[in-house]
């Protein structure tokens, strides 16, 4: 911009010509003529916009209150339907509260706040006292023009909406502080000595003779139909899922406990399906390399060498389920996993 040009005019300036006829400097188009809005010229329209904004903030308040009511009255009781209903109500009411604030703020800015354009010439890092005084005056004029000072109801509605919305997530967080903090449950699963391995999801027990070299099976503990229909089963199954693979026995380099006990049976090894990085299901098996891949972040484990990490962000092997065969030829667990399954937590850092 030319130093002597008035920024509020649209007159052209002389331009110099660069290579190939392209100008090196363009003329300043200036600031277009201000067009007043309907709310600037019609007091009724101004008041109508103010009422709409107040109603939007009020809707946000109602959404926040409804979210708190839904949180305390529709609590998950262990059933899928109740959990879905609680999640739906919390999501809808929080969305109404947040959208009310957002739409009201946008409408307020477009309809009531000052929309006059101001141009400040570029200057050194620190403006002169005169320029700073003008800038402060522009801000003061903008506040005065928006009518914030004389719109008490509007200010009250905005403050109420902004104050109530954080409660929609603060109350659930605070109320959960007194919840179940028994972390010992993370150390154990429902695998016990003698419990048969069964196919997931049918629950049919697995015989060692059913598996050929290279076979892969998704495994769960054998349980009664009544227990498998309960909500507790969903939680316990999530921790107990296992991937079973049959290898050539000579390919196995490590399948023993620290005490030297054998945890596999005739080349059949069983490891937790829960990745030790962030808990994704690990189920992509490559038969030639015996590598098991996590699809989330590409952590790779060697099934022939104690499921040790060979690539990726996981920092510890998959826990191994020690297995054996009972008198009827069915695969059974020797015991629970020797260490907690899944990613690390505050009392299980490695």
TrEMBL record:
It is found in: Cell membrane. This is Cytochrome bc1 complex Rieske iron-sulfur subunit. SUPFAM superfamilies: ISP domain. InterPro entries: QcrA_N, Rieske_2Fe-2S, Rieske_2Fe-2S_sf, Rieske_Fe-S_prot. Residues 239-332 form the Rieske domain. Belongs to the Rieske iron-sulfur protein family. The lineage of its organism: Bacteria, Bacillati, Actinomycetota, Actinomycetes, Micrococcales. Iron-sulfur subunit of the cytochrome bc1 complex, an essential component of the respiratory electron transport chain required for ATP synthesis. The bc1 complex catalyzes the oxidation of menaquinol and the reduction of cytochrome c in the respiratory chain. The bc1 complex operates through a Q-cycle mechanism that couples electron transfer to generation of the proton gradient that drives ATP synthesis. Gene3D superfamilies: Rieske [2Fe-2S] iron-sulphur domain. It is a multi-pass membrane protein. Residues 1-44 are annotated as: Disordered.
